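Revision sheet: structure tokens.
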Amino acid sequence: MDLGLKDKVAIVTGGASGIGEAIVRVLAEEGAKPIILDKNREKADALAQELVAEGHHISVHILDLRRENACQDVVEEIAETYGSIDILINNAGVNDSVDLDRPMKDFVESLEKTSTTWSP
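Predicted:
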């Protein structure tokens, strides 16, 4: 299948496991450049190593999405490194209908529903 994603820079939050992992795999197969944003370094690195060994371009950034400054910093870094960001898949959290149009407080509460005690 050709979804027209070749060389598209795609950020996937929560991209190390579950639905996010499946999205990263499809993006890689389609020739995109998936960038995994996740808090689980072990899972993110394992997925990236597997896909890189298959010849795909993958990047990993470990961060806590509840920290607004960290999100802004990583987006700026990615945009500077790649020249653009073509796709954003906001997959992290639970399916509770909280989207990015809501206040940051609501988004953080959504992330905390699935969060374990973790610190970067």
